[in-house]
Amino acid sequence: MTIERLQKIIANRGAVSRRAAEKLIEQGRVSVDGQVVTEMGFKTSTDALILIDGKEVIADDRKYYFLFNKPRLVLTTMDDPKGRKTVAEFFTDVPARVYPVGRLDYDVSGLLLMTNDGDLANFIMHPRYEFFKTYQAMCRGIVDKRQVKKLINGVTIDEDYFTKAIDAKLCNVNNEKNISIVELTIAEGKNHHVKKMLAAADIDLVKLKRTKIEFLDDDNLEVGEYRELKPHEVKQFYGIYNQNKRKGDL
């Protein structure tokens, strides 16, 4: 009989990510063999009867991996008490419960990974390994090279947090419409990170979209559509995962 932490078992069964499972446990929404569990370090048998909100968490042996082009004004969550549209509504035809890896703001469009693979999701969201994410920002006004260079050299956000873009460039300037397009790549993920960086560089953001996650790009994927990751793409993510695991980073 194998004993593991409750949140890991839930994630491995494909119900939600490990972080999401921790929140559910804290909220008293998880029971094990008939007993509600709120202790974060709780361990149990991998074949225990686990319920979330009264519904059994059943293991799905097949792992699903999707690249989703999230529209604006859609929440990166599986449900919303206020009834707003969520990413879950785009995956009703998928036989397993897939959930978002990481987050993308309500008013930001672009690429998002969806999976029921708890181990991979936990790795991608792990603070010790931050994936490169590229964004395109439509900005009001004529952005100059000095402002773009400031993003690369580094800006201070949240009063005392210094952060740099991995890369940044000015893609387009439309003098007639008074609009600029700035592209930047980051390897961090604090709340509203890109928005705060642009504001710190005195860039007036109008609209933001994520165009790339590591080696994955939108590849003509229409807004609101998703595609399944190809086997070699999953292997590439797992190659990074296994390298870091061997180094003891996880």
Topology:
Blueprint: E1 3-5, H1 6-12, H2 18-26, E2 30-32, E3 35-36, E4 43-45, E5 50-52, E6 55-56, E7 65-70, E8 99-101, E9 109-115, H3 118-124, E10 133-140, H4 145-153, E11 155-157, E12 161-163, E13 167-174, E14 179-186, H5 193-200, E15 204-213, E16 216-217, E17 226-228, H6 231-246
Parallel strand pairs: 9-15
Antiparallel strand pairs: 1-4, 2-3, 2-5, 5-6, 7-9, 7-17, 8-9, 10-14, 10-15, 11-12, 13-14, 15-16
Helix pairs in contact: 1-2
**What order do the helices and strands follow?**
EHHEEEEEEEEHEHEEEEHEEEH
* CATH topological fold name of the largest domain: Alpha-Beta Plaits
Give the class-level CATH name of the largest domain: Alpha Beta
Q: Distance N terminus to C terminus?
A: 24 Å
Question: What is the number of domains?
Answer: 3
Described by strand count, sense and barrel closure, the largest sheet is: 9 strands, mixed
Structural class: alpha+beta
Nearest-angstrom radius of gyration?
20 Å
Number of strands: 17
In the predicted model, the low-confidence regions spanning at least 5 consecutive residues are none
Arithmetic mean pLDDT: 89
What is the CATH superfamily of the largest domain? Pseudouridine synthase I, catalytic domain, N-terminal subdomain
Globally, the shape reads elongated
Q: Share of helix among residues? A: 10-25%
CATH-derived architecture of the largest domain: 2-Layer Sandwich
Helix tally equals 6
Strand share of the residues?
25-35%
